[in-house]
Specification:
By secondary structure, the protein is α/β, with parallel strands linked by helices. The chain is built from 11 helices and 10 strands. About 2% of the residues have low confidence.
Length: 320
């Protein structure tokens, strides 16, 4: 199957930047698109809900102006993430805004719904759906998603536990449409490896947490740069869903990262802290196992240049 037109345009790298709570705002998304990759943000980051329209207007306007002024540069499209779960009481209102602004790519998480997919398709947009296993992948496509994001072991935030090789292989036995791979991808050679495994794009998050344009605290960015894979803790305490978090932020919240209780999944509520008083994303900082590749706080442009150089070096080695 050929990629949809929106995904088939030239990019600086085959990368979709994953939407990150708090950290992903207009500044980060615009910088990602200007650097030639696909930028994204969660709709829930725009607070209050009325801000979502303002964010979309700004992103559309600044990218259009940049393209007009720089016709020879590669500029990526953008995506908006929707949490499709009963705890998201903004879903319907945010979808109305997304449709009104004709957002080109919508990323759906924690629930696949035909009506959401139909709404995006009504104006020609596409839907990419997060999945952590092959069963959820089948359900997403059956309900009309255009593509899949395989969230494998080691990814930041709400991650799965399956090997990326196993997950991609299972999906590729029956699905030949757009496939993104997430999980510890923070180096150019890992982007190439994602393609070699069978994905069309790498889905990169944690590396962008340590960029100047990200809307997270300076201490959070520095902790990313100072940490490595062994500093990642997998727990469902903070949102009711298992995810990967920085050990240092858990300790700073007065909790023992090696002895965390298990949360009741029914306590799922993003940002409320689940069954913990410490709030996910605000107090407990998400990150993936790939952060060992992140050594400095860079601008988005510098990071994409670095990833591109690493990617090209890895390709050159394979061609020798």
């Amino acid at each position: 199957m050929a990629l949809p037109d929106i995904l088939n345009q030239p990019l600086a790298l085959p990368v979709v930047a994953s939407p990150m709570f708090i950290a992903s705002g207009p500044e980060l998304v615009i910088a990602q698109c200007k650097a030639g990759i696909i930028g994204s943000f969660p709709a829930l980051n725009a607070r209050p809900a009325s801000e979502l329209a303002s964010w979309l207007t700004r992103i559309d306007g600044e990218l259009a102006a940049f393209k007009a002024e720089n016709p020879d540069l590669t500029v990526g499209p953008y995506a908006v993430n929707q949490i499709v779960h009963r705890s998201n009481d903004r879903l319907a209102a945010d979808m109305e805004t997304i449709v009104a602004h004709r957002v080109p790519i919508v990323i759906t998480s924690l629930g696949a719904r035909t009506d959401i997919n139909d709404a995006v398709h009504s104006y020609g947009g596409i839907v990419l759906h997060d999945v952590i296993n092959d069963r959820f992948a089948h359900k997403a496509i059956e309900k009309g998603a255009d593509g899949l994001i395989a969230v494998a072991a080691g990814a930041g935030g709400h991650a799965g536990t399956q090997s990326p090789f196993a997950l991609v292989q299972e999906i590729r036995t029956w699905f030949d449409g757009p496939l993104l791979l997430s999980g510890a991808i923070a180096h150019g050679r890992s982007i190439l490896a994602a393609q070699a495994a069978g994905a069309d794009f790498a889905y990169v998050g944690s590396a962008f947490l340590a960029t100047k344009e990200a809307n997270n605290e300076a201490a959070y960015k520095q902790m990313i740069a100072d940490s490595q894979a062994s500093d990642i803790v997998y727990s469902n305490l903070f949102t009711g869903i298992h995810g990967n978090y920085l050990r240092g932020s858990i300790t700073a919240a007065g909790l023992d990262p090696d002895d965390l209780p298990v949360s009741d999944p029914s306590a799922m509520n993003f940002g409320s802290g689940g069954s913990s008083d410490a709030k996910a994303w605000k107090d407990i900082w998400g990150a993936g196992q790939g952060i060992g590749s992140v050594k400095d706080v860079l601008s988005v442009g510098e990071l994409v240049q670095q990833l591109t150089a690493e990617y090209e070096q890895a390709r050159a080695r394979l061609l020798v």
